[in-house]
Amino acid sequence: MKKELLIVIIVGVLLIFLNKRRALQSMELRPAFPRNFRLNGISNLSFDLPFTAFNGSNGTLNIGGIDLRVYAEGQYIGRAFAAYNQQILPFGQSMLSTQVFVNLIDMASAIPGFLGGVQDQAVNMLFRGTLNVEGFYVPVEIPIAFNLPKFK
User: Fold this and answer.
1) Interatomic CA distance for residues 100 and 81, integer angstroms
2) Domains of the chain, each with CATH number or no CATH
3) How far is residue 15's CA from residue 130's CA, in Å, rounded to a whole number?
4) Partners of 67 in the β-ladder
5) Of 69, 1, 66, 76, which Cα lies nearest the Cα of 27?
6) In a designed cystine with 36, which of 48, 65, 67, 94 is the match (CB 3.0 to 4.6 A)?
7) What is the pTM of this model?
8) pLDDT (tens digit per residue) in 103-113
9) Is residue 134 within 8 Å of 61, Cβ to Cβ?
10) Per-residue DSSP letters for 1-22?
């Protein structure tokens, strides 16, 4: 009797885990336009960066937080993070607002890459870190290429 109950509990936990994993794989994050730029002291810049989160599954997802490192042209320039207690409904979307902190000294190290990006008419950004969803820390990597206008 105890053995059968233990097997049922293990199978139930495994099914819940697999269902959550499938839901996490269907989630998508897209950054929006930054806003509210602020200069903090003489070497730090901060701004708000909202992300649109899409839930492509038929289950509700609970978002606990986000912690991303920000790279420009391959150089680390800062962090984006926020803590949440937010739900995303099935097949729905929600706005996740993060605060980005950039050290201007780190940003200066990315200037050669920016100059190359200007010549290529695109600046490459990368957000890499973790998203806390349903108590799991899911690795996130979001590459973005900002196309620059052509100058004559």
Assistant:
1) 7
2) 2-147 (2.60.40.10)
3) 24
4) 81, 130
5) 66
6) 48
7) 0.73
8) 888 877 777 77
9) yes
10) -HHHHHHHHHHHHHHHHHHHHH
DSSP state at residue 152? -
What are the distances in angstroms from CA 28 to CA 7, 42, 119, 131?
34, 36, 31, 11
Q: How far apart are CA 81 and CA 44, in angstroms?
A: 16
Where residue 58 falls among pLDDT bands split at 50, 70, 90?
confident
Both tokens assigned to 17: 């885990």
Which residue in this structure is represented by tokens 């998203």?
131
Closest by alpha carbon to 31, among 150, 125, 149? 125
Place of tokens 């196309």: 147
Sign of CA dihedral 88, 135, 48, 144: negative
Residues 6+ apart with CB under 8 A from 36: 47, 48
Looking at residue 121, what DSSP letter applies?
Answer: T
Which run of H or E residues covers position 117?
A: helix 111-120
Structural tokens at position 133: 């969803």
Six-digit token string for 130: 């973790």
